[in-house]
Amino acid sequence: MSTPPSPSGAHPDRSPLRLGALVPLTRPGWVEAGRHLLAGLTLAVDEVNDAGGIDGRPLELVVRDTAADPERAAAAVDELAGLGVAAVVGEYHSVVARAVATRADALGVPFLCSSAVLDALVEEPAEWVARVAPAQSRGWRIYADFLLATGRDRIAVATQPSVYWATGTRLLRDRLAPRGGSVVELDATALTPEALCDALVEHDVTALLLLVGSPEPAVPVVRAVRGDRRLAGLLIGAPAGQPEFAGWAEALGEDGAGIPFLRYLPERLGPLGERVREELRERLGEAPSFVALEGWDTVAVLAALLRSHGTDRAAIAAAWPHVTAEGTRGPIRFSRTPGIDLWQWTWAPVQVADRDPSAPSVFRVLHTG
Predict the structure, then answer these.
(1) b vs e for 214-234, b when ≥16 Cβ sit within 10 Å of the residue's Cβ?
(2) pLDDT recorded at residue 7
(3) Pairing with 324, which of 231, 298, 334, 368 sits 20 to 30 Å away (CA)?
(4) Cα separations (Å) of 308 from 7, 228, 325?
(5) 348: Cβ–Cβ under 8 A, 6 or more apart, which residues?
(6) How does pLDDT run across 326-336, given as a tens digit for each residue?
(7) Which stretches within 156-289 are classed as H helix?
(8) What is the pLDDT of residue 14?
């Protein structure tokens, strides 16, 4: 007499259930963000396995380094699909996650994106793709509202060629212009930091936003602006979150404080968030970023889905709108959001924060949305 299969697809041999994990671990990827993201993913997998896995099957992360390269990441999706992963998780860079989402949707491999925020992560409605991070449009509009609330309405953006930075600039302009604000673009690839300072004086702006990579060219630009007496009253901002990481403070010290950025945290974490944060602190040897919590939340959601709806790829994709999981930053459930063609957690909490100039290791919450 045969034993009927369990609803979540338990295997009698208890073979590992593989998850593909895509993270930037080498340059030019944002290595620090990749390390935090992987720490969160790994901690959550370890905790799932300590609790018995998925119907007795341990989760196994198959990690691939994207190095911020979309082609490399898309090839990794092909490889992981061939290895039989149940789903792909992770990625930080939006341009990379877009390539991953497109390829995963074409291959019929579920992709749960952890940290990339670009609204147009896919070009048409995708059933195989979901996201834990909030959409860029939400966070950057909140950031624009913060600028207006602090009286900063003449904005310069130091930018590099990228669909992510270009989208951010458009979002800021669309939010500020109807309220009397303006945005001038300065090409950080064509201007030296000193020439950029001259342009800031010429345009008489009240804030400079760093829509550029870190540490280069963001760190030299900050140093140049901080050292220019003509710009003593200028606010420097970094909506993409560069000051969140310890490397920022190490590179800039006091110069890196007082630079508002977006982070996806509530004002206070609950008991689960506090516990996970402390576990991650031990693993990382430093305070974990919100990116590390995004990694943990990604696996927590997927584990809940696998337990309740099975491990078949099609079953996973069909279950996005039906799963609810307790994340470090609140209950997570997915829905269709107008203008976003994937399954979206609506919404992760958003705050504008900075490093306290009097104590750069301490973060201050300046605005929430």
Answers:
(1) bbebbbbbbebbbebeebeeb
(2) 41
(3) 368
(4) 8, 58, 11
(5) 132, 133, 134, 264, 294, 329, 330
(6) 999 999 999 99
(7) 163-176, 193-203, 218-226, 246-252, 271-284
(8) 87
Strand order from edge to edge, sheet including 235-237: 182-187, 154-159, 207-211, 235-237
**How confident is the model at residue 12, as a pLDDT?**
55
Q: Which amino acid is at 42?
A: T
User: What residues in the chain have per-residue pLDDT under 70?
Assistant: 1-13
Query: Looking at residue 6, what is its pLDDT?
Result: 39
pLDDT of residue 1: 32
**Confidence at residue 13, expressed as pLDDT on a 0 to 100 scale:** 61
Establish how many alpha carbons lie within 13 A of residue 186's alpha carbon, considering only the half-sphere containing its beta carbon: 26
For residues 313 and 61, give the distance between their C-alpha atoms in angstroms, rounded to a whole number: 16
- Six-digit token pair at 256? 């890196």
CA distance 27 to 156: 28
Cα distances from 360 to residues 63, 101, 293, 364, in angstroms, run 33, 37, 21, 10
For residue 276, what are the CA distances in angstroms to 41, 54, 63, 125, 253?
A: 11, 20, 21, 33, 28
- The secondary element (H helix, E strand) that includes residue 23 is strand 17-23
Residue keyed to tokens 């973060």: 363
Question: Is 90 in a helix, a strand, or coil?
Answer: strand
Instruction: Name the residue with tokens 């710009």.
Output: 231
- What count of Cα atoms within 13 Å lies in the side-chain half-sphere of residue 345? 30
